[in-house]
Amino acid sequence: MKQLRATLQGEWGIDRRAMSLSAYWAYGRTEDRFQSEKREPVGQIFED
């Protein structure tokens, strides 16, 4: 991820604020859902 981020920012000139990079992804989740879940306290993402 560090190398990918460096390439996107340095070589391609993409602003850091315009990117959302994650080393993992939960299959079937949309970007919007993924971003909202990142703000949830750990253990609160999945319903019981």
Individual helix count: 2
Coarse structural class:
mainly alpha
What can be said about the biggest beta sheet? none
Integer tally of domains: 1
Work out the radius of gyration. Answer: 14 Å
Helical residues, percent: 25-40%
Organism: Microbacterium invictum
Protein name: Siderophore-interacting protein C-terminal domain-containing protein
Structural features, described:
The relative contact order is 0.13. The chain has helices at 2-11, 31-38. 38% of the residues lie in helices and 0% in strands. With 48 residues, the protein is mainly α. It is elongated. The chain has one domain (2-38). The longest helix has 10 residues, at 2-11. The protein has 2 helices and no strands.
Descriptive keywords:
Siderophore-interacting protein C-terminal domain-containing protein; about 50 residues; about 40% helix; elongated; about 0% strand; FNR_nucleotide-bd; mainly alpha
